[in-house]
């Protein structure tokens, strides 16, 4: 059973509409609030050579990235820390604080607890003008599909390519890019945390569309030989880059460093790279149960 | 090192003002938003005979109680669940959902993860008119000090008094009472999750005031003999009742079932019960480090 299967049982309780996007969306006066939470813990999410500052940074980055993917501006961050050693709190807090200082939002509180396994849960609140809110739903055939940065870098870092290690350890949430893309009229957006291939299939399912990608256009981690480079770019997780669609006449978007990797098609559920179906796999938690 | 000592190191990073209250407070148009997160996990927070529905309920209740203590109305709840067995998710989600249905707010999303130890982190967002926001700071000498419900019930339930077991397993966040008290002009408020004595010392420190309590007035768990009943009421944790101060002319508050237990004094840091100092102890996480 994977996360997506599990979500089916949750849908029955909290409703379909609320779990389509990277954040929940709540009206608030003339603004929309967006709200998201992510749990990270030692065995699954933190490479052993990370510093505690980097762990705190990453905990903040993952939810700021969710806020960015809605076209929203981060407002506040909470950090709940389950600590095996209380002495770790200060560096973890500094890391989360510094990520907010760099990318947006303010660390305003949290909770602390003793835990056998270091567990960090961050929650981010953002806001956005309704006209600039971007959801996963909204892509149309003929739109371009694009990514910021280079997908697969975090995976390359994990697999021993030291030049890409920092992309894994200190992900940069694309807050400024997300805001600019919301203002520029991106039609659909999500972050790449589960990998490009899986994210494309998620977008295809929500939009009942397909994607045709060009291999030549796909950014791949520098210095990694093929076929690994392409595999990392398609199936590697942990990149907190943005995947988005938008009408061709909206490009370029000032201040956004992105690459057009293909286009949206009407072929429901088909994700093709140079005409060949992309495997539907990526980073998912797997359960023994 | 206890939680309060740990907070000192966090203050240096995120600032004093943000961690005085049960929630962070954020302006949003003509409203204030309040935001809070709490981590609960198997070994520390969940009695073994709890059902998963009750675990989900409690996870929601603890943050809804924080929202209530600010005089605010819950808007949304997120639940991050670290699960040892994915089959537990459905009942946990239902419990959290049902607590929201009963007391306010809507479960709008969350995160799921595999975790060796069941770990639930809920985050609640609330809103309140600025005039009705209640903080810990604001109590004045001459105000009355009051509690909702009966402090010590959860402790009695934990210690084997089966009649009080449900107070431990299914705490009821005092959302409606908190709203009414905010509108009625309560001068200071917090919830009782750490126990009455410790909460009074916290309020005393923030307000540079003291408290004189009358033993006769103190509600104690029914059926528990003395001196346990008084000890449970003063030092037991896990009650999600409200502790608040307000000027005498504001009582009674329609719809709020509460007890006046004493009054606010100008005796900085002194908490007296029938003239005798109350011990400064209660429910705190203790660290071996």
Describe this structure in words.
The structure is a homodimer of 289-residue chains. The first copy, chain A, is α+β, with helices and mostly antiparallel strands and 289 residues long. Chain A has 2 domains: 3-131, 60s Ribosomal Protein L30, Chain: A; 134-277, Phosphoribosyl-aminoimidazole Synthetase, Chain A, domain 2 (Alpha-Beta Complex). Chain A contains 9 helices and 12 strands. Chain A has helices at residues 3-14, 42-45, 52-68, 89-103, 153-158, 165-169, 175-184, 196-207, 228-235, and strands at residues 24-28, 31-41, 73-83, 106-114, 119-128, 144-148, 188-191, 210-213, 242-246, 258-265, 271-273, 276-277. Chain A has a 7-stranded mixed beta sheet with strand order 7-9-6-10-8-11-12, sandwiched between helices. A 5-stranded mixed beta sheet of chain A has the order 1-2-5-3-4. The longest helix of chain A has 17 residues, at 52-68. Chain A starts with a helix and ends in a 12-residue tail after the last strand. The model of chain A has no long low-confidence stretch (mean pLDDT 92).
